[in-house]
Amino acid sequence: MSGTTTTSYGLALAPGGLFLAQELANTGLPLAREPDPLQDLEAAGAWLQGAFTEWSHRTGQPAPDASLTARDVPKLRVLRVLVREWLTTGEPASPSTSTLHVSLGPGRGVSYGPTSSGVAALLSLIAVEALLARRSQTLERLKVCANRGCGAVFYDESRNASRRWHDVKVCGNAVNLRASRARRAAQASTGEHTVPGDR
Fold first, then answer.
1. Model confidence over 114-128: pLDDT tens digits?
2. pTM, rounded to two decimals
3. In whole angstroms, what is the distance from residue 82 CA to residue 105 CA?
4. Domain count of the chain?
């Protein structure tokens, strides 16, 4: 999926269908360089079609119907907020129930997909892909940048899954600099002085 919000941050997409939650959460962030793809019906429809096409390519399943109406765009934005909250805090994000079809196929294959279209289909796929990612122990590697002013969702590919920022040079340095200034300000207000070499 070229030209996604996630890749515009220089980030790799999460593996398999897990990228759907990541890509939705990365739309409309405060530091985004591009306009919010969920800003209107035309842009949201194009974004959803691209996301479903990429999901189909990655999973080998047929792409769901990406049809949206004007009333669906606010629902898509609500789902984005709920998914971001779930990734950040772990609180339940599902605004409603969603259904999928699952069937056994030739060559020991398994087919699955949403029974609905549009926003409901996206919710179904995010839920099932999160379940599959949990089973494969990759879900915990999908993280929200620790810089609260950023919030980009990244897939932590580090060996020990210890990354905290989507980009250590951009967000990590900014957070560390703010913490250092806060410590110096606190020391100055209490009259403490740091002796070089002391810790």
1. 999 999 999 999 999
2. 0.83
3. 33
4. 1
